[in-house]
Amino acid sequence: MADVADVLGRLRGLADPARLEGMARHGVGGADVLGVTVAELRALAEELGRSHELAAGLWRSGVHEARILAGLVEEPAAVDERQLDEWTAGFDSWDVCDQVCQNLVRHTPFAWARALAWSGRPEPFVKRAGFAVMAGLAVADRGSDDDRFEPFLRAVAERADDDRPVVRKGVSWALRQMGKRSPGLHARAVQTAQGLRSGGRGARWVGADVLRELERRRPAGE
After folding, report:
1. Confidence of residue 221 (pLDDT cuts 50, 70, 90)
2. CA distance 164 to 73
3. What is the pLDDT of residues 149-166, one digit of tens each?
4. Residues 138 and 173 sit within 8 Å (Cβ to Cβ)
5. How many whole angstroms separate alpha carbon 194 and alpha carbon 209?
């Protein structure tokens, strides 16, 4: 297994401080950012392979890119709900949130339950994580029928009125991906978005954002 210190050294070798200003402009950041691209992280993860022990060490480092890499090398079958909750509580940037949710959380047996639980939490990145997992499941879980997404649609309707950009963009992402999944879910998502237009400021933003895309894009078969 690769040594955590060695991997951190490799990350620092890939770092380009010239990227930091652009990352900050897009809200990418956190406590310790190096300036390594996601493409570089994916290439390194492919070389390293999966390791629960390495993932834990990388996460504990607190380094921004190391935490994204932790999600890429972690073994989905080795994690439990407690670990997922602990990692999610440590999110301090939307990109770490989204990368870990897409690369790890949605591949675990706990994805559906954690998506609903997190979407009801007050912390902005935890709440976003709930909707990010919903979006990922809508895209990638091809074995579930439309009815399984009904609790997610209710969560959007009940929890979308949050005007924090990091949250409302996550809610919109989830609803748009559900609406693109099938003709039936497209109709339900449009109905949900239309209902949001009579809500508070955050809900209205989500409804308008979703309708701009779904009203011009209909899934095959509709």
Report:
1. low
2. 31
3. 999 999 999 999 999 999
4. no
5. 11
Q: Scan for tokens 């005007």, then name that residue.
A: 163
| Site of tokens 């897409």 | 102
Predicted TM-score (pTM) of this structure: 0.93
Please tell me the distance from the alpha carbon of residue 190 to that of residue 194, in angstroms, as a whole number.
6
Question: What token pair was written down for 10?
Answer: 């490799």
* Whole-angstrom distance, CA of residue 88 vs CA of residue 84: 6
| Closest among 11, 12, 35, 15 to 23, alpha carbons compared | 35
Q: Is 50 exposed, middle or buried (0-12, 13-18, 19+ CB in 10 A)?
A: middle
Contact 117, 130 (CB under 8 A): yes
CA distances from 55 to 6, 71, 85, 110, 121 (A): 13, 7, 15, 18, 25
Assigned token pair, 159: 């929890």
